[in-house]
Amino acid sequence: MYSSQILDCATAQSQDAEPDHGPCRLCGERLKTTVVDLGVSPLANAFISRKSRNRMEAFYPLHAMICDSCHLVQLEEFESPQEIFRDYLYYSSYSTSWLKHAEAYVAQQITRFNLDASSLIVEIASNDGYLLQYAQERGVKVLGIEPASTVAEVAIGKGIRTEIAFFGEETAERLKDCGVQADLMVANNVLAHVPDLHDFLQGFYVLLKKDGVVTFEFPHLMRLLQETQFDTIYHEHFSYLSLRTVSQALQQHGLRVFDVEELPTHGGSLRVYATHDESEKHPTQISVGELLHRELAAGLEDMKTYKDFAERVVQIKENLVEFLINAKRAGQKIVAYGAPAKGNTLLNFCGIGPEFISFTTDMNPHKQQMLLPGSRIPIMPPEEIRHSRPDAVVILPWNLKDEIMPQLAYIREWGGRFVLPIPDLHVL
After folding, report:
1. Phi and psi dihedrals of 36, rounded to 5?
2. Which residues belong to any copy of the C-methyltransferase domain (predicted)?
3. Which residue ranges in the chain fall short of pLDDT 50?
4. Do 178 and 239 lie in a common domain?
5. Burial of 276 (0-12, 13-18, 19+ CB in 10 A)
6. Whole-angstrom Cα distance, residue 204 to residue 213?
7. Reported pTM
8. Is residue 110 part of a domain?
9. CB 142 within 8 A of CB 183
10. DSSP 8-state assignment for residue 29
11. Which end of the chain is more exposed for a tag (fewer CB within 10 A), N or C?
12. Are residues 73 and 140 in the same domain?
């Protein structure tokens, strides 16, 4: 009763004073419609050092909106990309499944587009060289463009040519003036991280050869909605993308989508293939029209779809908090695995701290001995799970459960269980 009164009060307040949410980053129309309001949260990758544990954190609204005109789901920009990615601690190479995904991608595209020693692959947000290393091994020329110097230096140390810069029209023009023109451009899980979509996409138009190809991979909005993957909403993700919105954006910059693949990565992603609009080398495949039709049938332009999604988000919160309260009262010890950005959205929205989850663990040594933002849950090495013998392990990167659960199968020795909070609470 008390909780519902608070929710009713919050709803009434939002109706009484409608805030100005600014313009859509794709079409410029004023944003009016809420997808889901997750309250306030710190930046999801702003990990806290032990020595800074008593310092104040910045919290920002985590309020996803949808444009009534172009239907792009988006967050407002509260912090610049320069600030968000200044001390970035995400290293792609710590996920074995992601490395396999990258290696398979390189092999597939080299074959499909007949790339050889005379070809150039340019990856945007190339991180620690996780993907370009496989192209370089096959004798194809590579160039990475990565704004976070922390991870770019790792790639450079591997011998992978890397430009430390944010990508956009200016960077593309500068590289083109130096003779850089790409046969294949790769943008994996970066399009959603860009507040200025138009500047970013114009860079591909500039740097891509006439018949060159660019592929974008990003979590699919349709899957996010269908499986209530609200934890993938965080400040580093400015946009939540469908094939339709990406196609609209690319068209404004002289680029045409000619193929699309559905992928299992990150809970369900798309790989979109595009080329210059005037290129006749890559005809549009039937897959494009079919997926556009399925998105429409799934209600991506129906506001009721988003209202239903928001209601399910609250149910997930209730179920997880209830499980943790009952486990605590039963004297059980609960820990977590992983320190992904999505986990921080989940924990902060649900109000979960060390009083419920004693610690989490992560393979990335750069995150170990840090504290999660907001919740201040400590991050330990994975072997700490074996030492502490918890009753249950909450898998925060639930999209990697098939990789993680076999690694932690030893918890069965003492009756330990796995907890998967999304899309529904499962205790396994």
Report:
1. -160, 140
2. 264-423
3. 1-17
4. yes
5. buried
6. 10
7. 0.87
8. yes
9. no
10. P
11. N
12. no
